[in-house]
Amino acid sequence: MLSDVASDGTTITPRARVWKARRGSRGHTDGAEQVPNQDGAGVVDAVGEGVDPVWAGRRVWIWEAAWQRADGTAQEYVVLPLRQAVPLPDNASFELGASLGIPALTAHRSLTVAEGSPERLGPGALAGRTVLVAGGAGAVGNAAIQLARWAGATVITTVSSPEKEALARAAGAQHVVNYRAGDTAAAIRTVAPGGVDVVVEVAPAPNAELDVAVLAPTGTVALYANDGGDALGLPVLPLMLGNLRWQAVMIYTVPAAAKDHAVAAVSAAIADGALQVGEQSGLPLHRFPVEQIADAHAAVEQGAVGKVLIELP
Predict the structure, then answer these.
(1) Predicted confidence (pLDDT) per residue in 11-28, tens digit
(2) Domains in the chain, ordered, with CATH?
(3) What is the C-alpha separation between 223 and 220, in angstroms, rounded?
(4) 236 CB contacts (<8 Å, ≥6 apart)?
(5) pTM of the predicted protein model
(6) SS3 helix, strand, coil % of the chain, rounded to 5?
């Protein structure tokens, strides 16, 4: 085990929709007291038995701290298995490290579940493929755009406003479609006449008709959220004719090997400078001191665009 310490301005980020856990709808500890937040970044303060002492003092980013555990990252110290602490290069900020975790790992899994996809992304791994990212201004959407571009894909994304279009373009999307301004399917098909190979989908129910209309044969919708409703209706015959696939993604429960591939790929992307945060990279940062953690969670609940970070003393 090792402990992550935030004594030097480390920033810890709340998980998307952690406010649901605060309301009791996503508790993972059977009603026990829960320190929230899954992701974070900081410095290893101490190591436990069996861990190489060289880890002490290392800068790390961490993931899934609060999954089926009582201790999340909204505190100065957290003890985790070594596997969940990943070296953070000196040229990568703690803000970046704290913004990775669940969003980046989810994005990687979503980009690698299609038929014929690589297990692990890297430069050129998605060359020749077209990816549609629904909601490119969100945290997962932003990570998916950056990772897909790093891997050589052509990236199309959908947004709901000119402001979000600017963020998606800052993240690296080559084509941005405002779904409130015309025929979205036609606009996507203009860019990708043969269809898109992968859809990274945040709203599978409202976007079902659109996704069917724009998928290429053997294409895949990787759905990682249920924005817009839980009930998903799909037309059977078009799916059969196109050999289309809807693949659900829950990063907490993916196979261990897939998680390891995601962690390794995200680390490689960081090293290459391919993952960035901040408004200039399409992901504005909103900082709250830990004393205002409830306000931070409220900001997420109310739809703050970007990444909400909690700063520890």
Answers:
(1) 333 333 343 444 444 444
(2) 2-100+275-311 (3.90.180.10), 103-252 (3.40.50.720)
(3) 9
(4) none
(5) 0.90
(6) 35, 25, 40
